[in-house]
């Protein structure tokens, strides 16, 4: 069975194995043992609440309990840009007009921006190819929303997610080749590695501060502004289902879209419910629906947060979880859990 749980000190090797599978474009998950070790230490301190909320980095892993293998990873950062610069391009519009010539044009522009500094961030989502089946991707991605719903006070009003931008089959970025290379004079992967290591001062030093006209870029660079990597498209759809949306901010290197939302407007904040694990004999089965939808179920413990997908549903504030499911959640009869339908209800 699969469980998404808070990372612990013994997961460094498995985390490195996952990071080695990721490839380029995800700066928050690189196969660097020192960097991953430091991040794991920060994550453990985050769940233990020994560092301030804005410095926290809640890192979750999906574990296959049959063989104790890590199948995926995801994270939530308490706030971005407070200890190191956080840059994006904001897409704007400049209007040029002349009554005398009867000319009116609207030109899209890129502005170097720190507008999203201080926002909480969803990041580092990666599911091993061996586990990209069934509900696994939804379980991994949506676990973070149930965590936020249980502990909303730990996060800022706005939450964002930087999506990996489009890359060609050879791994190159058309946007970077059309724009960034002119200023950085280095390979895309080298820039990607520097950013992952926190060496971001060169961005402010080398990037122009004035607006850049998108129409001046090569056509293949224009075409990918706001587009995602092909392997990232499913992740984008999941986030949009949960209430996140694109508002014209993109990554400065690959032009991947930045999704954002108010925490209070997320589906998990609106639709998740608390329920009590009850003995079988206390569940009123007659009140249960004839057909059930898969349900996300988490415990309510910060330090040992755990979440699964179950076929059980909450009935009159009670939920009938199997003994195996209770063991996965590290809780038992009488404990409080949080529940949320895995799938978004479609409006008829």
TrEMBL record:
Record-listed E.C. numbers: 2.3.1.109
Enzyme class: transferase
Pfam families: AstA
Originating species: Pseudoduganella lutea
Single GO BP term: L-arginine catabolic process
Keywords: Acyltransferase, Arginine metabolism, Transferase
Domain of life of the source: Bacteria
An MF annotation (GO) of this entry: arginine N-succinyltransferase activity
The name this protein goes by in its record: Arginine N-succinyltransferase
